[in-house]
Amino acid sequence: MADLKVGTLNVRGLKNGDKRRAVFGSLRDTKLDLVFLQECHIDSEDTRRRFGEDWQWGPSVWSAGTGRGDGVGLIFRSHDFAVTAVLSVVPGRVICTDGTWRGLRFRAVGVYAPSRIGERRGFFGALAPLGAPALQGGGEPGGGERVLLRASGAGGGGSDRAAPCPPSSTFCIWSP
Questions:
Q1: The Endonuclease/exonuclease/phosphatase domain covers which part of the protein (predicted)?
Q2: What is the pTM (predicted TM-score) of this model?
Q3: How many whole angstroms from its chain centre is CA 96?
Q4: Eight-state DSSP code of residue 164
């Protein structure tokens, strides 16, 4: 299996066109294959569509929210990725993406948790249907920069540290 380089970035807003072009240009020039974006400030379908049109170096998926800092995205820096399904689990906060990469199926889940500790327990509890037992404890303050990866072979085994993947997946990436 080829190396897959994954990153996460809190962009603190992408509505400003100059800032969006600068961030997208920097991400285009990185060695990362996919990047989870948090706090994109996506509040409408129009904004979501515009962000998708502006990222031209591979597929991208976006979820709009209702709060000022809401909005998450996942950008792929290669057309080797094909997105087959997108689910905005918690609008503007959690996006689940299924797809293929170089013949392998994957599920990538981007999570932008609430900053208030009291809001996290219910928030992470809502992720249980996605198979995220490692995330249900409520999270740690400032702990939103971890990426958990599970790669499965023919036997379906994988790392015990990672959130479980659906049986049909070859690998699963979580960005809480």
A1: 7-79
A2: 0.76
A3: 7
A4: P
> 6-33, pLDDT tens digit by residue?
999 999 999 999 999 999 999 999 999 9
> What gap in Å lies between CA 63 and CA 41, rounded to an integer?
10
Give the gyration radius of the chain's Cα atoms: 15
Show the tokens assigned to 166.
């659906």
Q: Strand, coil or helix: what is 1?
A: coil
- In this structure, the chain runs to a length of 176
Q: In the chain, what are the domains?
A: 6-175 (3.60.10.10)
| Strand 81-90 relative to strand 6-10, pairing | unpaired
Token reading at 65: 């929210």
At position 102, the amino acid (one-letter code) is R
Q: Which two tokens stand for residue 123?
A: 């928030």
Are residues 107 and 169 in contact, defined by beta-carbon separation less than 8 angstroms? yes
* Cα 55 to Cα 8: distance, rounded to the nearest angstrom: 16
